[in-house]
Structures are given as structure tokens and as C-alpha cells.
Amino acid sequence: MPLSVCSVSTAFSRITVSGSLTVPSDSARCEAVYASSQLQQKQIPPIATLAFRSSHNRSSAAPSVQINRGRSFTMTISAATSNAVEMNGLSVATKTESIPVFTLEEVASKLQQFTEPKRKPYTAMYSSIVGGITLDPAAMVVPLDDHIVHRGHAVFDTATVFNGYLYELDAHVDRLLRSAAQARIPLPFSRSVLRNILVQTAAASGSREGTLRYWLSTGPGGFDLSPSECEKSSFYAVMIAVRAESPGAVSVITSSVPIKKQKFATMKTTNYLPNALSKMDAEDKGAFQAVWLDDEGYVAEAANMNVAFVSKGTLLMPAFDNILSGCTAKRVVALAEQLAAKSKGEVLQKVEVRKISVEEAKSADEMMLLVSSYRVVPVTEWDGQQIGDGVVGPVTRLISDVMYQDLINGPPEVREPVPYQQ
Predict the structure, then answer these.
(1) Catalytic-labelled residue, pool 260, 268, 279, 330
(2) Keywords on this record (predicted)?
(3) 180-206 tens-digit pLDDT
(4) Same fold, 104-240 and 250-409
(5) Domain 104-240 has what CATH class?
């Protein structure tokens, strides 16, 4: 089987061989073998062994390799070696590819190429490092020595933008400041200035729907553990112009990932590894979310959502003592109490925020998840057990409707008009 090797190069542990292959018959085969002094002529693991047949009937352990009869080809062998590569008895020495050193202009160009496909969702960013707003996603960067990056010493929060209004902005800003105080992060400026930055960032984006997410960090300054090296705390805000679509009725599981301890569960920090692992746990098991139980075995919260139940006409919600104080959850409590008073118990009798056992929760008539992006998400199954009748309940539907009306027609204290430029 004739083989003409044009070039061989390595980049880290990847070996690329380019050349031309003539396939004389359907049974022709080419195997890649690497040679080293320690591993004498041992075959590369199957994932890097390529079997070629004719162009109309080929098989390969690397499906991306394109083989055409008598034409040039390129194949990549993943191998932790930079020694020699033997192709059909022909040994070819490899060489280490040098890593380029870019100028600032070249880095900016690379960042623009990387972010171009993502330009639409990220419509504005404020950075206290540069002291202003950028509309170019390529410029939406954070210093690597900022402790938000390498220590996770930062807090964050989110506000929804809907139909040109910021929803519950003050509630979210107040929670951010509480989290910052718990995390011992000093404010780079006053609350009023911070709030104004958020409103102006939303306005500069031009986006009438989406999410405004913002972070407070101990700031840049070095790679030590203590923020004493940081000259000043930093603040970032990004407008993400993506409207969250409700997933409809979902199923949940009990999380196998340990819940955060009370001190860290009650502040909204950027250390979301337990939350991410809990969400992945749910996805692995075909569920939408995973529900945490507290150290005493009572229902706590989901990975990034609060939970609520309806039992015999009562809306039940876990106390916020050991979990994050959800802004949406608290708004639901306030509106549900008004709803119970107006309906005189016909639809909803009362609201209770207290400890809820797993047994009581799973035997509830209705269950829902509460989060700012979706507001209300109905739950019809938990750990494979049907909740209530297994359909979206009447109270869940009513609360969802009430929350939506609050979003589009709520009082001024929960709806801040975004001053877009004409």
C-alpha cells in the first residue's frame, strides 16, 4: 500500500500526519504505530488506530478523517508522545510545534474571531476595571488575577429585563449587598452608584428582554489566597439578551451531592461547583433539577431554585434559615398571601414558610420550582413518585399567572423602566 508522507507535526500530545494514500482494494488497511524507547513498537490504543477501506466503503475509529481513493488525506493521532511515528513500516520523526507569542492587537483579533458567533446574546458589559461599558463581546474580559477567577471570592446576582423594564431590581441589589457583607467584600462605590450602573448597562445594550447578571469581587492584584493584595474590589455586569422559555412540567430527584453549609448556602457566591454537580446529577438521571435536603433531612432548595408545595389549600415553602433567600420565592409569598385574602380561601387558604419533611413534600397536591428566569416551574414527579395527580395543579397555574401579571403590570417598586437612548 503506497504511502507518501508530506508532513508530520505535533502540538502538545496531538500528532498530525498528512500525505497521500492509494487504496488498491476494499480490504486495504493502514495502521498507525508509535515507537519509543520505553514502549517498544506497541500499538496506539484503538481510538487512534485507523482502518481505511475504499471511498465507497470505509470504516475508521476517527470518523472525521476523510479518505478518497488516491487523494490527499490528513489524520490526527492522539498519543502522549512526541517521539517517532511509524506508518506502514516507514518511521517519521516528529517535531514539537512552537507556541506563538501574540501582540495585544493579535490577541484582540483572536478574541473577536472567538466571540463573533456569540455576539448576539451578550449585548453590553460594564467593568469597573476600565470604568465603562462595552458593546463588543471580544472586550468582555476579566483580569486573570482577579480573585473572582482563581479563588471564587466573589458574589453575584441577576435581574430580569422584560418588555423594557428591570423586574425586582432593588430586591436583587439588596441581596447582592448582603452577600458581599457576608463574604467580606467592600463595595467599590455606593449602592446608588452601583444601581445606576446596572440601569445604564441595560439601557446601553438596547435589549428589551433578557437577563442582567452582575458580580462583586475582591478584585485583581495577584494570585495569593488573601485579598489583602487586591487594591480595590471590582464590579462587572453583563446583559444577556436571551429570553428564558419555560420548560413546562418537569421531574426532579433528590440530590446526591451534599448541600452547602448554612453560612455559604445563604450567600450567593460564585462558588457554584456543588450547584453545578447537583444539576448534572439531575440531568444524568433524566430529571430537570435536583432537590437538596438540609442536615436534618428537611426539604431545602434545588440547585439554583427555591421549591414550594401546595397541600390541602396551603402554600408551603421551606424557611430561608439555611438556604438562599430567593427574591422570586419571597415575591410569591407576598402575592400568594394577597391572593388567599382576596379569594377568602376558595382557591388558596394560607401561606406557611416552615420546615417541610420529605414525606410531607412528596405527598403534597402540587409542587413547583421558583426562579427569576422562569418564575414558576411545575413539578409533577419527584424520584419517580408522582406528585398529586401528576399534572399541573390549579394553584400552581394561578400563582404562575399572578407572577406573570406582576412582571408586566406590577407596581413601580418592582418594575424599573430602562431609559433606552432614542
Answers:
(1) 268
(2) Pyridoxal phosphate
(3) 999 999 999 999 999 999 999 999 999
(4) no
(5) alpha beta
